[in-house]
Amino acid sequence: MNVSRVSQPWAVAFLSLATSVLLSSCSTAPSTQESTTTPDQSLAALYGFYQATVGALGASGWDAPPSPATDLDVTPESCRLSNGDAGIRYTDWLYGPPTVDPGASARLVSKYWKSRGLTVAVTAPHTNDDEWDVRGADAHYNVMFTDNPRTASLSIVMPCITGDVDRMIDRVIAHREKEALEAGDTPSPTPEPQ
């Protein structure tokens, strides 16, 4: 069913909610990649996918990905592996300028993601909402592109991988403090856990 042709507001709302629930469930689903992907590989895939999507749009003015983007520079979040153990995953939400034709941009992103094998759903604006949403998912990515007259954005959630989130965050903090000292800055004290 083409959401842009649905004329009943309740039907649009239902389809939008159903699509959101279906695709958002992928972000918490265990991944078959969890035991073999390293943090640096996950980050490289995340920012590579981002740059490829922005490249497919042919747009400029988007946020630059962090550089460097290693496990010492980017903070992970916690998640659950398929066996129930705690793991880590990387996510980012990056912004760009609105496009001249958000509908055309949504169709372009949808086509590109489908070419990469993602399951894709496009939600056209309805009622008082002027935003186009494109959501995509597969075993490696859970992504969302939005575009409206004010801004465009791309959210990427990577699969859960093996790792200890507390240890990883401690490493990131220690690395940042070391870099600040080497640069001659005085780092803020890291608060002790309560």
UniProtKB/TrEMBL annotation:
<feature type="signal peptide">
    <location>
        <begin position="1"/>
        <end position="29"/>
    </location>
</feature>
<protein>
    <submittedName>
        <fullName>Uncharacterized protein</fullName>
    </submittedName>
</protein>
<keyword id="KW-0732">Signal</keyword>
